Amino acid sequence: MDDTARLLQSTATRLFQDHFPPAALAEAERGTWPAAAWAAVEEAGLHHAMVPEHGVAVPDALALLRVAGEHAVPLPLTETMLATWLLAGAGLPIPDGPLTVASGDVALVREGGGWRLAGLASRVPWGRHAAAVAVLAGGLVALAEKGGWTAEHGANMALEPRDDLRFDVVVDAVAPAGDGGLRAVGAAMRSLQIAGALLRVTAMTTRYAQDRVQFGRPIGKFQAIQQYIATMAAQTAAAVAAADLAAEAVADGVRVLPIAAAKARTGEAASLVAGLAHQVHGAIGFTYEHALHFSTKRLWSWRDEFGSEAEWNAVLGRHIAGAGAVRLWEELTAW
Amino acid sequence: MEALSYAPPPPSPEAEALRTEVRAFMAAELAHRTPLARAESWTGFDPAFSRKMGERGWIGMTWPRPYGGHERSALERYVVLEEALAAGAPVSAHWIADRQSGPSILRHGSEAQKQSILPRIAAGQCFFCIGMSEPDSGSDLASVRTRATPVQGGYLVNGTKLWTSHAHHAHYMILFCRTGGAEGDRHAGTSQFLVDLSLPGIRIRPVLALTGEHHFNEVVFEDFFLPETALLGREGEGWSQVTGELAFERSGPERFLSSFQLLVELVRALGPEPSERGAIAIGRLTAHILTLRRLSRSVAGMLQNGENPALQAALVKDLGALLEQEIPEIARQLIAAEPTTQSTQDFSAVLAYTIMHAPSFSLRGGTREILRGMVARGLGLR
């Protein structure tokens, strides 16, 4: 990692640490938009790290999402970066403010000098707070500004907004989508967030095992606990490595297969680690008051967003099966 | 949690160029090797094959040239290892010597020992076995009882070593034993020795695996004389020397490719258009291998940098053994077969072989429980 990237990482880390102690995460769950935090994100330019003109290497931009995942950041950082990627790829302007991406039962039809964008996009991340939405419909990207949709509120388990947006508006910023799959890039980004959350959960669990005393000693002295935490560490290391593969794959023209492997592997790690974390934390970790749930609810949510393990494993498996046994090793060493 | 985030493996175009060459060699040399034989992976013993690899400069690759090495990078070495394993090459004769005995001699040996032995290892002509475990000392290596008592001109060794894979074929053993030390200090007073197995007075008895195969041995020393020149490194420094040796290559590709031939046969058996179940299973195993390879190569990069990634290596071995043991269980759920190594069906034969060897994957080279204890210690829990 070079100095610019390191600086970006440390800026993000400090920003998230300052703005999102557990009380702020609880506040976000109650529906408060973290305006000051988002303003700080915009001032630091984090949300535009994927914009080509900003000169940040793609893997370094994506690495910010691991930091965001680690701090359970209740902001559409991933979604804004995904939107800027989609808009830049289509040669469309990139507006200020929090952005998100929508696709679904939506159509773009020529009307007058512009296009009518109409239909329903389900579970759009952070839709209700978006200043604008990049909508993907039939190979075209449209930029819809606030006012161009009505929102029905929804959420994932971490109470991050997942809103149904109904569009019915004439837009003029429409262009063909660039190469590369939206779902794959979104999956890569969620993989990085998951990796960050896993680092946080494993660190919390290790600390808890050192602090919690029962039977006259820290519970981390018991072999059963040590074996659980060692398992968590191994799964976390695997997830971090897989997410790195995904980031490199996005940078390299969005190579889908390593991204598929990463989303599947991080999802599997998330499942194992969340369970073990709660087991080690005991009853106290099951309370709202303890901060563990802010991270585990995200693990449980993110593993099913932009494609579950089953979906991406099937993509990868069909490719490998199609290549055949004789070419298996070649495939495994190709990326 | 910095220990859980590994730097990417450094790009290595030389390694990729080497890959083409090694892959072609393996394809040519092993064209007629059956899937069952390939499944033996790195336990297949073939002195002639080892010599050929030595001739190509593929043993002792990272060692200094004055000792017969080739001063190539850890990542280039990694390519040779993984291409050999993927092809199911019979590399076991030189494997231990290349992986740990040679590096140990390089680190601790006298000039005479280095000059005498290392070039022969690199030539693929000198084979080693490991003299660490005993009947009463497995995971608890510090409890060894084999003792080398100083006598005129050397030592008299008494004791028994167990497991010692290929002792019946090897030229040398690196023996870990007591040489002194105060009662009650288990780590002090141990040393390592280079034991020439051609010397008289060593009894080697086969210990058959549950498959009936002979790889393991019991090696008995009874008043066996070792000259002073056999001491490896410093007397009394055995424990730190041996723990350094154990850290080598816990993270290598052999730690997650032991069941690879079965995966090949599974992909073959499922055909180009598998069911959804089959596709998901293959995809998942692929995702695991890609991830492990990434971790393993990152560790190779750390070794290249002169780091000592003991924690990272333990994590890779833990994950690798889990994957290796899972593959036969997944395979049999997808393809109906009554596995037997006598089958003419490759899938059935390789499945049987892998099932029966699977228990050893989480035992050899450090048991799962010990490795996880090491990780826990590295995280500050012990």
What are the key terms here?
heterodimer; A: about 325 residues; alpha+beta; Butyryl-CoA Dehydrogenase, subunit A, domain 3; 3 domains; 4-stranded mixed β-sheet; 11 helices; 10 strands; globular; B: alpha+beta; Butyryl-Coa Dehydrogenase, subunit A, domain 1; 4-stranded antiparallel β-sheet; 12 helices
Topology:
The complex is a heterodimer of chains A (335) and B (382).
Chain A: H1 3-19, H2 22-29, H3 35-44, H4 58-70, H5 77-89, E1 99-103, E2 105-111, E3 114-125, E4 132-137, E5 140-145, E6 149-152, E7 162-171, E8 174-176, H6 182-211, E9 213-214, E10 217-218, H7 223-251, H8 256-281, H9 292-302, H10 309-323, H11 328-332
Helix pairs in contact in A: 1-3, 1-4, 4-6, 4-7, 5-6, 6-7, 6-8, 6-9, 7-8, 8-9, 8-10
Chain B: H1 13-29, H2 35-39, H3 47-55, H4 74-86, H5 92-108, H6 111-122, E1 128-131, E2 147-151, E3 154-163, E4 172-178, E5 190-196, E6 202-208, E7 214-227, E8 231-232, H7 238-247, H8 260-270, H9 276-304, H10 310-334, H11 346-361, H12 368-378
Parallel strand pairs in B: 1-4
Antiparallel strand pairs in B: 2-3, 3-7, 4-5, 5-8, 6-7
Helix pairs in contact in B: 1-4, 5-6, 5-7, 8-10, 8-11, 9-10, 10-11, 10-12
